[in-house]
Amino acid sequence: MTHAAPETTPKIVSKSISKDGVGPAIGALVRVEDDAYGCKSPVQCDALNLDDDSISDTYPYMEVGSADAVIGHEATVSKVADDQLFYL
Questions:
Q1: Are 36 and 67 in contact (CB under 8 A)?
Q2: How do 12-18 and 70-79 pair as beta strands?
C-alpha cells in the first residue's frame, strides 16, 4: 500500500492458515510519500495454525517519508485445539 496523497486511511488485513508443517511468511509493505501528510495505516496479520508442526511468520515493511504519519503493525498467531478440528 502506497500513500501518495494526504489524509489517506486504509486498513490492511492479512489472514493465513497453516497445516502439516507448512507456514506462510506474510509481509505487508506500507509506503508513505514525503508529501502525504496526515496518513494513518494500521496493518493486521492473523495466522491460524492447525497443528503443532506449522509456523507462521509476519514481517512488517514500512517506508515512512512523512513525519506525522501514524503507522502500526499487529500480529496474532492462534492454534486450533485437536478436538475442535473434528468439527471443521
A1: no
A2: unpaired
